[in-house]
Amino acid sequence: MRGLMHRPFIAQAVALMAIYGTTSACSTAAATPEIALQTSIPQGPPVVMFVGDSFTVGSGPVPRWRAYASEAARLLGWQPIIAGAGGTGYLSEGRVGRTFQQSFEAELAWRPAPDVLVISGGHNDCRWSAPKVRRAATELLRDARATWPRAEVVMVGPIWMGRAPAKAYRVRDALAEVAERQAVPFLDPMRERWAADGEAEMTLPDGVHPTHAGHARLGTWLAGALSRLPYQGP
Known about the structure:
- The chain has helices at residues 54-57, 68-76, 100-108, 130-147, 166-181, 212-228, and strands at 10-20, 31-41, 47-52, 79-84, 116-120, 152-156, 186-187.
- With 234 residues, it is α/β, with parallel strands linked by helices.
- The strands form two sheets. It has a five-stranded parallel sheet, sandwiched between helices. Strands 1-2 form a two-stranded antiparallel sheet.
- Helix 5 links the parallel strand 6 (152-156) and strand 7.
- Helix 2 crosses helix 6.
- It is globular, with a radius of gyration of 24 Å.
- The chain starts with 9 loop residues before the first strand and ends in a 6-residue tail after the last helix.
- The model is unreliable at 5-33 (pLDDT under 50).
């Protein structure tokens, strides 16, 4: 496997038959030897699943396949499966009426286990208290690990392309605490500077969501961060 981990080849017995001839007035005794056919299914690229908000799934002129989650997977050569919706969070239901937990259950939990699950968000949870966000994040992590015990789980904190308000730091700190307690890597976008003088505009006119250039920058950052994590693999 390319990247950080190695998935075993899947060996599947396609046919195992023993056919024996019989004697009759019209045939002579015959025996067909046992046939054993084994086929190996070629190894595919690592699968990374995302649960996230509008930063993860794309917004405005940026479609899902150009959002930072897809950009990171493209750089790593991984196969992405992206769940979630704009306005959602660990507690925020957005316009779609579901939280990260509900998006995980509806869109991902029924699928075969991925190599990596990235839970990214918190931007929309700032109106909730840190303890409530902490409880919701803990529940989601526990459910994800119970569903896919061998998948690697990574948390990405709230994304703010510009200056973040004080309440965003409280949510960020609550999520970082959950990740530490659950022994899950925590990546903190709020520690980064996303736009430098003279560079292309990083946010859309709403001043919140990334442009294509902003998503490209986020994707490069995430791909680099994931490639440096000490995964053991299954």
